[in-house]
C-alpha cells in the first residue's frame, strides 16, 4: 500500500545580482525550471515507480531533497547570472519536518 504527501519545496539561488537586471535569476525562469524538472514529473505520481530520476532511490524527504537538487542544478546554474548558482533545496514534508540539501555551504 502506498501513501502520499503534500510537500513544500524551497529553492535558493545565491550569488551576485546581474548589474543590468538586478536579479540573481529571473524568478519566472526559475519557476519554469522547477515546474519542468520537479513538479510535472513528480506531482500526483508514485515516486517509487513513476519518476525516472528517482528510480532506485528510497523516497524519504532526505533522499528526495538531494535528488531534486541534482535534477535542478544544471538548468538553474545556466539560467542564473554570472557567479550565481543553485545554493540549496529545502523540502518540507510538514511544517516541522523538513530536509535541506546544501552541498556548497562554506
Radius of gyration: 14 Å
In terms of quaternary structure, the protein is single chain
**CATH level 1 class label:** Alpha Beta
- The chain-level structural class is alpha+beta
What's the tally of helices?
Answer: 2
CATH architecture classification? 2-Layer Sandwich
What summary fits the major beta sheet? 3 strands, antiparallel
Going across the biggest sheet, name each strand in turn.
Answer: 1-2-3
Mean pLDDT level: 93
CATH homologous superfamily (4th level) name:
6-pyruvoyl tetrahydropterin synthase/QueD
| Helical residue percent band | 25-40%
Percentage of residues in DSSP E strands: 15-25%
Stretches with pLDDT under 50, minimum 5 residues: none
Give the H and E element order: EHHEE
Distance between the termini: 41 Å
CATH topology name: Tetrahydropterin Synthase, Chain A
Number of strands: 3
Number of domains: 1
Summarize the structure.
The chain is α+β, with helices and mostly antiparallel strands and 106 residues long. Helix content is 33%, strand content 18%. Strand 2 and strand 3 (98-101) form a beta hairpin.
Considering the chains and any ligands shown, give keywords for the structure.
alpha+beta; 3-stranded antiparallel β-sheet; 33% helix; 106 residues; single chain; 18% strand; Tetrahydropterin Synthase, Chain A
Give a description of the structure.
The protein is an alpha+beta fold and 106 residues long. The chain has a single domain, classed as 2-Layer Sandwich (Tetrahydropterin Synthase, Chain A). The chain contains two helices and three strands; from the N terminus they run E-H-H-E-E. It has helices spanning 27-42, 61-79; strands at 8-14, 85-92, 98-101. It has a three-stranded antiparallel β-sheet, covered by helices on one side. Helix 1 (27-42) runs antiparallel to helix 2. The longest helix is centred in the middle third of the chain and has 19 residues, at 61-79. It starts with 7 loop residues before the first strand and ends in a 5-residue tail after the last strand. The model has no long low-confidence stretch (mean pLDDT 93).
